[in-house]
Amino acid sequence: MLVIENCRLTWPDFSADYSMRVDKGDLCAVIGPSGGGKTTLLHMIAGFETPESGTLTFEGQNLLPLEPAKRPVAIVFQDHNLFPHLTAAQNVALGLRPSLRLTDEERVLIDDMLDAVGLKGFDTRKPGEMSGGQRQRVALARALVSGRPLILLDEPFSSLDPGLRRDMIQLVGELRRKRPVTILMTIHTPEDVADLADQMVFVADGKVVASDVPSAILGGPLGAKIAAAVSNT
Ligand SMILES: Nc1ncnc2c1ncn2[C@@H]1O[C@H](COP(=O)(O)OP(=O)(O)OP(=O)(O)O)[C@@H](O)[C@H]1O
């Protein structure tokens, strides 16, 4: 379980105080108005931002003393952070072995992962030779191949057209059935994940305002506020 308790961050124009829980193996959608603190929450879990107080544990392990590379966390950004001079297979391999010196077994694992994200035969392509959706598949494969149990997806598919975005979200659902991981995903279109997510949290003004199953969040008293927030993003 991911447990965040009163993690505070203070900047001149923004302050946050996060408390939430996500069960092991669950997919948690993080929604809320622009500037409400969704990305900051993910950055804090990944270790890019350090709270001045509070506790942050995953499976009982205190993450706060750990630098980002030592955390059991893989993050996929909206701009996917692929290296343009490396092939799809090499970009995925970075998630497993930053030196890119791979064993035969690791090569097979990377091939299997490219296959799993629907990129069989794309292994020698470079990011510039792939579509936006294909690049996001590479980034997703890199996060999954890392074997890290907590995956953070920061608006990973928002630049894709609605049909492709829904395909990618379905793909996340399929992949997590194959390999159990806990996922937090920020998203501006909550309806796309309503059927897939186990949990939905609404983040506004630096706080987790509500946390429940998606149907309760979207159909509950916050529904109108959420619709307004989401339509403004
Ligand atoms: N390192 C930082 N220093 C100062 N302020 C920051 C820093 N990081 C984030 N902020 C501020 O924190 C607030 C929340 O930003 P954040 O990116 O978390 O919002 P968000 O909910 O992800 O928004 P969006 O949906 O538009 O991506 C913003 O006002 C932002 O300017």
UniProtKB/TrEMBL annotation:
| Keywords of this entry | ATP-binding, Cell inner membrane, Cell membrane, Membrane, Nucleotide-binding, Translocase, Transport
**Gene3D superfamilies (alphabetical):** P-loop containing nucleotide triphosphate hydrolases (3.40.50.300)
Which positions fall inside the ABC transporter domain?
2-230
InterPro entries with a match to the protein in the record:
AAA+_ATPase, ABC_SmlMolc_Importer, ABC_transporter-like_ATP-bd, ABC_transporter-like_CS, P-loop_NTPase
- Family the entry assigns: Belongs to the ABC transporter superfamily.
Name of the featured protein: Thiamine transport system ATP-binding protein
Molecular function, one GO term: ATP binding
List the source organism.
Microvirga guangxiensis
Q: Which domain of life is it from?
A: Bacteria
